[in-house]
Amino acid sequence: MNKIQNNKAWLLVIPVFVIVAFSAIIPLMTVVNYSVQDIFGPGQRVFIGTEWFKEVLLDERLHDALWRQLLFSALVLLIEIPLGILIALALPTRGWSVSLFLIILALPLLIPWNVIGFIWIVFARPDIGLAGKTINDLLSIDYNFTSNAFDAWITVLIMDVWHWTPLVVLLCYAGLRAIPDAYYQAASIDGASKWAVFRYIQLPKMREVLTIAVLLRFMDSFLIYAEPFVLTGGGPGNSTTFLSQFLTKMAIGQFDLGPAAAFSLIYFLIVLLFSWLFYTAITHISQ
Asked: Which CATH number fits domain 59-286: 3.90.1010.10, 1.10.3720.10, 3.30.420.140, 3.40.50.720?
């Protein structure tokens, strides 16, 4: 006898689709429309096909910003993921100190992104900043993130590590706490070392949360805008101008809506491609 299926639950999903359509799909279609037209003014448009895409893809400034962005995102992942795992492993597992440490770690995540930039401007200033002044006076290093490209890069990278490593820590800590005690008891009986426990118990059990951490941190780092914009303005020169700032200058500074729309679609596809590659690689390695 066939069961009668009740599909009324789909009625609850319809408002979600409507909201997504207005907040994502319709704006995306507008960008697609701009990317294939040359806009001269209200009602004055000419269909040009893929010309804007060709122009953007051949732009040397885009190539430089892309390599800069890839390097930054790679460094972020190489630093924040292992560091987050190590901190999560070092945190206490019981007692009142657990809540205290987690609250302290979560504080940087509560600060707005643009405020993060202002905090580090004050903190890293070479004349009066606590970090900048200390580095110049005690270490005798000519540190100045406003005029030295390498110093600006290091400052932006450390700022991002300080801001977002707590997210990795919280995800890894949640994954570690979800491991049943029976696994640790069995490892203790077998005389397993700490490395063996981490390699064969903790790391495999953290696979899901590490996948989420890698994807979130890659997407966030690849879309970074507010922090370096406030801290360095993309300088010195273009040394800290990432893809998001390049797109903003094109769309708002130069008001090139067609090329900006084409570049935003390319930007979107790049993020999707690398996210898919990371997800595929992580799931393949963990199997």
From this structure: 1.10.3720.10
